[in-house]
């Protein structure tokens, strides 16, 4: 609709321009008015992001969700996040891809990337033991992530020569200290390999996030997948629309250089609260969040639950 209106106003400008040589004051005023309409129409088109079709999904916590390759073959996701590196800091590391063979993941990562799908590793999660004791500890963790998962080298890379696209911060336990340092050290590696190092985060929707607030203020994160679930104070539901909208706007306004995704459970059983059915998402929620210029799409927990409900299939064209 906006495109047709813009074309119509451009035609009016051309017609008036042909008569401007007559020098009439009324003509010049009319031309100025139409030009203003064209400018406003153009700005309006840019300001509203609208649909992106982008869905991020977390994968890796049960063998029942199928392989990483199958997830990417579905053509439903633009980003898949492997979850989780559940232990890090103090020289101790543990990767937990429950029920999945690490060696089988390596060729699947390459397959996904061949389809222009980003594959990241999430650090943290709701279980495990992790923290950063100091800036030096953050630097050491960044080096470990670079050498074992990103563009560095090690004899003990879990996924062999497959190179992940970046790191996701899902910090829910322990201390909030030094994640800003970790982000800075990871981003420094971005120019050292063949791939950009993407940084994403999954903060809780109460703003600012108590664990990642300092890290996000660095402005180094390309994207945030805000968890609008398990947080009744800011999740979407009838009677809480105003609070949800305020929370979304705070996140969108706080990250002008990054994109913001709406994080949701793909099933009522995937979280304690915060599930939004597909019909409500499309008719009620997306019209609110797609007004933001840095709206990026949605994030789903998780691939397993998405298979059970078909959530992403139901909403893909609307997001």
- The beta-strand count equals 10
Radius of gyration, rounded? 23 Å
Spatial strand arrangement across the major sheet: 1-2-4-6-7-8-9-10
The secondary-structure element order is HHEHEEHEEHEHEHEHEHEHH
Specify the number of helices.
11
Distance between the termini: 19 Å
Q: What would the principal axes of the Cα set say about the shape? A: globular
Structural class: alpha/beta
Q: Helical content, roughly?
A: 25-40%
Which runs of at least 5 residues are low in confidence (pLDDT < 50)?
Answer: 1-48
Q: Can you offer a commentary on this structure?
A:
With 319 residues, this protein is of the alpha/beta class. The protein has helices spanning 2-19, 25-47, 68-73, 102-114, 135-148, 179-188, 213-216, 241-254, 278-289, 303-309, 311-315, and strands at residues 55-59, 79-88, 94-95, 118-125, 129-130, 166-171, 198-201, 223-227, 259-265, 295-301. It is built from eleven helices and ten strands. The two termini are 19 Å apart. The relative contact order is 0.12.
In short:
This protein is an alpha/beta fold and 319 residues long. The chain contains 11 helices and 10 strands.
Any descriptors?
319 residues, alpha/beta, eight-stranded parallel beta barrel, globular
């Amino acid at each position: 609709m906006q495109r047709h209106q813009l074309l119509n106003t451009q035609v009016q400008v051309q017609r008036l321009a042909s008569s401007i040589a007559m020098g009439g004051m009324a003509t010049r005023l009319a031309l100025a008015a139409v030009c203003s309409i064209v400018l406003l129409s153009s700005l309006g088109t840019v300001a509203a992001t609208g649909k992106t079709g982008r869905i991020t999904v977390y994968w890796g916590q049960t063998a029942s969700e199928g392989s990483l390759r199958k997830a990417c073959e579905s053509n439903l996701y633009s980003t898949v996040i492997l979850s989780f590196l559940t232990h890090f800091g103090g020289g101790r590391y543990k990767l937990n891809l429950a029920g999945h063979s690490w060696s089988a993941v390596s060729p699947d990562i390459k397959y996904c990337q061949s389809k222009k799908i980003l594959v990241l590793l999430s650090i943290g999660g709701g279980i495990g033991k992790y923290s950063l004791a100091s800036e030096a500890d953050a630097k050491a963790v960044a080096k470990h992530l670079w050498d074992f998962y990103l563009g560095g080298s090690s004899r003990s890379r879990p996924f062999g020569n497959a190179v992940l696209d970046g790191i996701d911060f899902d910090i829910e336990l322990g201390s909030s200290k030094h994640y800003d340092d970790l982000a800075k050290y990871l981003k420094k590696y971005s120019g050292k390999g063949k791939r950009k190092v993407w940084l994403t985060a999954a903060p809780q929707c109460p703003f600012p996030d108590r664990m990642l607030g300092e890290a996000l203020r660095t402005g180094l994160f390309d994207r945030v997948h805000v968890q609008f679930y398990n947080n009744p104070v800011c999740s979407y539901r009838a009677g809480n629309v105003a609070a949800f909208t305020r929370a979304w706007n705070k996140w969108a306004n706080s990250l002008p250089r990054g994109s913001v995704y709406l994080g949701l459970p793909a099933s009522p059983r995937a979280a304690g609260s915060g599930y939004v059915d597909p019909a409500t998402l499309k008719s009620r929620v997306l019209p609110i969040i797609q007004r933001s210029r840095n709206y990026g799409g949605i994030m789903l927990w998780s691939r397993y639950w998405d298979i059970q409900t078909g959530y992403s299939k139901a909403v893909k064209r609307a997001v």
